Amino acid sequence: MRPFTYERATDVPGACAAASRPGATFISGGTNLLDLMKLEIERPSHLVDISRLPLADVDELQDGALRIGAQAANSDVAADPRVRTRYPVLSQALVAGASGQLRNKASVGGNLVQRTRCPYFYDTAAGCNKRDPGSGCSAIGGFNRIHAVLGASDSCIATNPSDMAVAMSVLDAQIELLDADRSVRRVDIADFHRLPGDTPHVETVLRPGEMITAVILPPPPPGRQLYRKVRDRASYEFALVSVAAIVATDRGTISSARVAFGGVAHKPWRSADAEAALTGRPATMATYRAAAETAMRDAVGQGQNDFKIDLARRTLCRTLVQAAQAS
Amino acid sequence: MIGQALNRVDGPLKVTGGATYAYEFRDGDQPLYGFVVGATIGRGRITGIDTTRVESSPGVHLVLTHQNAPAQGARDLSVPFEYWRAYPTLSSPDVHHHGEPVALVVAATFEQARTAANLVDVEYAAEQGSYDFAACQDQAYAPESLIFGIPADTAVGDVDAGLRTAEVQVDEWYTTPYEFSQPMEPPACLVVPDGDDLVVYTSCQIVDAARASIAATLELDPERVHVVTQYVGGGFGSKLRIHGETILAAMAARALQRPVKVALTRQQMFSSVSVRPTSSQRVRLGAERDGRLVAIAHEVTMHTNRHVEFIEPTATATRSLYAAPNRLTSTRLVPLDVLRGEDVRAPGEAPGLLVVESAVDELAHALGMDPVELRIRNEPTVDPERGVPYSDRHLVECLRDGADRFGWERRLPEPARRRDGRWLVGYGVAAAIRVHLQGPTKAAVRLGPDGIAVVESDMTDIGTGTYTILTQVAAEGLGLPPDRVRVELGRSEFPPSVGSGGSWGAGNSSTAVHHACTALREKLLAAASSDVRSPLHGLDTAGAVFSGGSVSIDGASEALGEIVTRNCPEGLEAEGETVLLTEEPNYGAYAIHTYGAHFAEVGVDADTAEIRLRRMLGVFSVGRVLNAKTARSQLIGGMIWGVSQALAEEGVVDMRSGGFVNRDLAQYLVPVHADIPEIDAVMLDGFDDKANVLGVKGLGELGICGAGAAVANAVFNATGVRVRDFPITIEKVLPGLPLTEV
């Protein structure tokens, strides 16, 4: 771990100003950043601790939306009665993530910017374009069981590890950002994370010093919400594949559907194709299979992760069955 | 007292942080901190090390490399056991595996050492290494023999002929992966120079081996090395010997004449300690229609590091497990440039029974026979390869009792027939057998004038409960309440033992303490009966009863403390010991094992092939139990590791670098609490009078033996999919599942 200086931010604009200095970065729960600093994958010279800023509230907005402060703990959001009632897919995704201890410590904002768990990213002796641009991708041709099957590039096949973001994806969440110049902008979650392309080290649209201040959930769409996470063990493992779905049916016909996958790409993978293949169709397995085929049409395996393609199809079908049954 | 579920006597210290582990000791000056730098190639040579950037890094006191490390003793193969041999570290520019230490950076703080360690510039001339076990099978060779001189290969009758005549046959290949011990406490030490002596606080399983290995490596008189190992946060084989971290700390402490601490990070524990070798195993079984085996062949090939041969005795359990007239076992090694193999819990039985007990299940399926019944039909009357009687074999009772308790009769013989919602549910069974060993161990028991007995041995408690069981044995041996016994372990100044490992620690040390107590009782009686001041003076000591801190003969009684106070106020002491099994006639005349039967119920998600244990039961025959609570905990721990072996654990080697890729506990998977819903271990009443005077046998490894096979067999029963490449993971089961339907 490189030596660094530390300050506890006392106000939001001051924190942004402090973090826009070269070498500075925000720290909140630190559940990912500290590991990365010990391995010198992240080497900040200055940490701006924003965990105690007054950004942890969950508030209802006048238009029926819910505003989740970026410093709210993952566990608090998961347990919030408004989230559990109106956005159960988010609550389910949050409790499926990490462990109880980590959820208590990890913030919503931090969850959105956590780094991949590709083992080569963490092995400083291995080539990794995300860690060290231009050094190659060791996962290609290496151990890539957990890697991406959609949207990957020749530079990077890493996945985004977040469960929470997958649920937010089907909720059309907006990320509220505050820049060092005090300007505020909102970014759709669909636009917040980037595909790797040839710049896999640039993972989000965040600018230097820009702070995630909140996540805004619009009023929930009709239909039943479900989050299904598939993994080797029952807890404390990142998703091999996950599905977030919101499905509404009307007399046996799917009236609306939203679908996103986790664990398959460099970002939460909302599938507009699958949604189109579902909407207006009968709520039957044939429809779900067709949607699953469509969703995975462009999927490409690396060998060891080929199974994820079929696993994603199967998981989607089962999640849709369950969502449609109850909606 | 012996057998009771006495709470751990060290429990309060451990849960309050009062138990001091190796890295936490403070002795002498403020210690310096060492951080190990590992090789980033798997095979080749260091051509240059530039330490200029390190030496100017804040706080750095020393950079040790092969260029400035002191001369060290070589591994002496005439020393009978590996763990006592030297462990030369930084002794040459050659790299023998990825992650091998190439430097130690010593600095004022851990953080400074770790930061500076990243500034060591090492240049290598890398060579093409052999890392692919499957691709190197043609290089397999036959080792001379296994540990204790056990033959590597055995043959009885004619297996090929037996298989030809058998009405039903199984002939399958299985593979098991690299597995790691990964105790909670990493390898860690504090080495304090004291004149010409070294005081070494280190986390190890065998104090005597640590002392011998350090002395042999540093070419010191073993008397100059003082090892302290009071508490150990788990070993599982990885701490049977000390490794580079202790040698490096010792070299640095001597060079700097300052205390030096070294601990490995979790990532380093996957690259510079040891690993259970990966294996390829062929099992051939031939049986008559009634299930009686006519042939058993178990042929094992495992990896070894090219430079340090390690042979896991994986086929040996098969030699004693079932009757069959025609038999064959063999052991082959494939030399690779991969991390060296060492013992991991139940070396041999763990990977061997995982495979053989899967094959037996395959045979049961082929026969259409209940797998419990198949095993019972092949129960031998004598050890089928050695021809000697079993000392105390109760495998059939374990199977019957377990089947009864588990509700085995509810199992559906046809696979993939039982559903519970979206779960495919299956039952599996497997047998457990584990050899019981004995080794040389001494213990001293000293009774003070205060009536408190102090037990001393360099034996270790690696979390297993040694402090507690020896308290019980001494309390019973001297008729004392347990709070009048104090057990002191883990110092090389104490009588030597062979430590914790091979499931022999409890049997060895409790027997030695028992003998010491017997001798001490004789001394107490001799002192009292010959002492005119004693109420016992002149009485016949044959009927003496030791109880409640006193000894009584025919109504006359005296407190033990008073006998000591009067006759030897400095305390009265006696020693007891055990000897190596080769010097103990029973171990040649009998086959001495522990036994068990595992029963598992799993659910497999019909859509995703996620596999989850639903419940598990083990019934075990272990001779006499010393402590019902610590014994059960050990057995359950082993069973959970079996679940892990079947479903989770796999060290993955990158075939380009030769290094392990999944180097933390988020990626090297083991079960978490949510994976282990309902589990129980039951021990049959027992007493093996051939094992030792207490009737006690080791059980630390029995729990894992066969446990994984019960889970694997349950997966087959649930799905009809037989996976022979462990661990059984989603991608291996998924293709065999039926297409999802509503």
TrEMBL record, chain A:
<dbReference type="InterPro" id="IPR051312">
    <property type="entry name" value="Diverse_Substr_Oxidored"/>
</dbReference>
<dbReference type="InterPro" id="IPR002346">
    <property type="entry name" value="Mopterin_DH_FAD-bd"/>
</dbReference>
<dbReference type="InterPro" id="IPR016167">
    <property type="entry name" value="FAD-bd_PCMH_sub1"/>
</dbReference>
<dbReference type="InterPro" id="IPR016169">
    <property type="entry name" value="FAD-bd_PCMH_sub2"/>
</dbReference>
<protein>
    <submittedName>
        <fullName>Xanthine dehydrogenase family protein subunit M</fullName>
    </submittedName>
</protein>
<dbReference type="Pfam" id="PF03450">
    <property type="entry name" value="CO_deh_flav_C"/>
</dbReference>
<dbReference type="InterPro" id="IPR036318">
    <property type="entry name" value="FAD-bd_PCMH-like_sf"/>
</dbReference>
<dbReference type="InterPro" id="IPR036683">
    <property type="entry name" value="CO_DH_flav_C_dom_sf"/>
</dbReference>
<feature type="domain" description="FAD-binding PCMH-type">
    <location>
        <begin position="1"/>
        <end position="222"/>
    </location>
</feature>
<dbReference type="InterPro" id="IPR016166">
    <property type="entry name" value="FAD-bd_PCMH"/>
</dbReference>
<keyword id="KW-0560">Oxidoreductase</keyword>
<dbReference type="InterPro" id="IPR005107">
    <property type="entry name" value="CO_DH_flav_C"/>
</dbReference>
<dbReference type="Pfam" id="PF00941">
    <property type="entry name" value="FAD_binding_5"/>
</dbReference>
Automatic annotation (TrEMBL), chain B:
<dbReference type="InterPro" id="IPR046867">
    <property type="entry name" value="AldOxase/xan_DH_MoCoBD2"/>
</dbReference>
<dbReference type="Pfam" id="PF20256">
    <property type="entry name" value="MoCoBD_2"/>
</dbReference>
<dbReference type="InterPro" id="IPR008274">
    <property type="entry name" value="AldOxase/xan_DH_MoCoBD1"/>
</dbReference>
<dbReference type="InterPro" id="IPR037165">
    <property type="entry name" value="AldOxase/xan_DH_Mopterin-bd_sf"/>
</dbReference>
<dbReference type="InterPro" id="IPR036856">
    <property type="entry name" value="Ald_Oxase/Xan_DH_a/b_sf"/>
</dbReference>
<dbReference type="Pfam" id="PF02738">
    <property type="entry name" value="MoCoBD_1"/>
</dbReference>
<feature type="domain" description="Aldehyde oxidase/xanthine dehydrogenase a/b hammerhead">
    <location>
        <begin position="16"/>
        <end position="128"/>
    </location>
</feature>
<protein>
    <submittedName>
        <fullName>Xanthine dehydrogenase family protein molybdopterin-binding subunit</fullName>
    </submittedName>
</protein>
<dbReference type="InterPro" id="IPR016208">
    <property type="entry name" value="Ald_Oxase/xanthine_DH-like"/>
</dbReference>
<dbReference type="InterPro" id="IPR000674">
    <property type="entry name" value="Ald_Oxase/Xan_DH_a/b"/>
</dbReference>
<dbReference type="Pfam" id="PF01315">
    <property type="entry name" value="Ald_Xan_dh_C"/>
</dbReference>
